[in-house]
Design a protein that fits this description.
With 168 residues, this protein is an all-alpha fold. It has one domain. Helix content is 75%, strand content 2%. The protein has six helices and two strands, in the order H-E-E-H-H-H-H-H. A two-stranded antiparallel ribbon has the order 1-2. The chain is globular, with a radius of gyration of 17 Å. It starts with a helix and ends with a helix.
Length: 168
């Protein structure tokens, strides 16, 4: 097993373990840092990385083709770490007591979009050669779905933030 795929699996396992620990009330991210809870800071940092680095990656890999491998590693592992932070945020929200339970609407849609982004990204990075060029789900189809999910991410995150701020 190549070290990159092994590291990706370790990050995903760590994400699952930490989310389970939060949901089981073994870990709490309810500590306030400034006016917001640690869980919110985690979600914002993860979402900001995705929102900023996704278009940056598109341009940087063309501007510096000799650094494409490094940029792809930053893209892959940065997004997995961003997914970890976003997962900690949603797990923290889901573990809140009934009297302060959040409205989940677009937050759940956003999390599902992130899960699908991670899944299609992992397929593109680590299983593209197995998807092949024939059949109904090719590497090119996966890439199209991945990019389309990123568009959905942008739309949903804007709505999520505006609702969270009480602007809509």
């Amino acid at each position: 097993m190549r070290w990159r795929s092994a590291l990706a699996i370790v990050i995903l396992l760590l994400t699952a373990v930490l989310a389970a620990a939060i949901l089981a009330d073994m870990v709490s991210l309810g500590t306030f840092i400034g006016p917001y809870r640690l869980a919110h800071w985690a979600g914002w940092i993860g979402a900001l990385f995705v929102a900023i680095y996704a278009p940056a990656y598109h341009f940087l890999k063309r501007a510096w083709p000799k650094r494409a491998k490094l940029l792809l590693d930053i893209h892959s592992f940065g997004f997995l770490l961003a997914f970890l932070l976003i997962t900690l945020h949603i797990a923290s929200q889901l573990s809140r007591p009934p009297q302060s339970y959040p409205v989940l609407g677009e937050g759940i849609a956003l999390f599902i979009t992130m899960v699908l982004l991670v899944a299609t990204g992992m397929m593109q990075r680590f299983a593209a050669s197995r998807l092949g060029s024939k059949g109904w789900y090719t590497s090119r189809t996966n890439q199209t779905v991945h990019v389309s999910l990123l568009s959905a991410f942008y739309i949903i995150i804007v709505v999520h933030v505006l609702l969270g701020l009480g602007l809509i």
